[in-house]
Model the fold of this input.
Amino acid sequence: MRILPEETCCVVVDIQEKFMPVIAEAEEMVSCCERLLRGLGILEIPVMVTAQYAKGLGLNLSEIRAAAGTEEFCDKKSFSVYGDAVAREKLASFGRKNVILCGIEAHICVLQSVIDLKAAGYQPVLVWDCVSSRRLRDREIALLRAQAEGAVITGSESLLFELTGSAEHPCFRQISALVK
Done:
């Protein structure tokens, strides 16, 4: 299956301040997410950001908000993004079948989102270097389960170049410079 830009949107899952001190390889994951989100912005791929109970767990990281190009977020209490009515409506408004997922925690909110999105007829695209958990083993198991549930597993650089399609794409140079 080819991931095409006109069929694709992104959901950033709960990359919040209070989670980050306990997340494995958090700095690298955030860096990969920033690169992915900047690339999606260049390619004009719509992005939705969520926060799990923001009142208690804080806002999304400022660098993630900047890379996503928005201060807006869906404040959810459901672990799954698709379990929140506002998030479901926003996602439907994009009119895209492929949903790129990045964020935390891979084995809880991200995985449950994959399962529910797939059941609802979307094609989840899980970016392995843009997800993490408190323990790396939990991330590894989440990636295996997500794949078994029907998610496409890919990396941020690979995905950006797939969305670009060729060196003739008008945004190729910007994407190429971003991943260097």
About this structure: The CA atoms of residues 16 and 60 lie 4 Å apart. The chain is about 45% helix and 20% strand.
